[in-house]
Amino acid sequence: MGVTDKIKDLLEVIRNHIENGNFIDTRHAELRKKQRKILTRDVVYILMNGFHEKKKDKFDAYYQSWNYAIRGKLKSEGREIRVIISFDEEGMLIITAIELQ
Predict the structure, then answer these.
(1) 7, 49, 57, 76: which has the fewest Cβ within 10 Å?
(2) Distance between CA atoms of 92 and 85, rounded to whole angstroms?
(3) Collapsing DSSP states into helix, strand and coil, what is residue 25?
(4) Could you write out the three-class secondary structure of 44-99?
(5) pLDDT more than 70, % of the chain
(6) What is the pLDDT of residues 12-69, one digit of tens each?
(7) Rounded distance, CA 61 to CA 98, Å?
(8) pLDDT exceeds 70 at position 1
């Protein structure tokens, strides 16, 4: 698979990374989560239970990788969150988390 190819079975790949603890926040994600009062457990919940928002996926030419959008609603608060993730040779990267109005 080349760098411009998108991942097939994305939600399954995400779940495997979450279950294996093979994910990290980027500095940007840490900052945005703090600003937006989004907890890591919220991000994990969305990644495990949300849906792939394909129209929001973007190829990042600088990093030569795809950024994928996963969207879902938190049960407890009803907040709708979009999480942007990517992958590198180490594992899954949380790029940012955004609360949708």
Answers:
(1) 76
(2) 7
(3) strand
(4) HHHHHHCEECHHHCEEECCCCEEEEEEEEECCCCCCEEEEEEEECCCCEEEEEEEE
(5) 96
(6) 999 999 999 999 999 999 999 999 999 999 999 999 999 999 999 999 999 899 999 9
(7) 22
(8) no
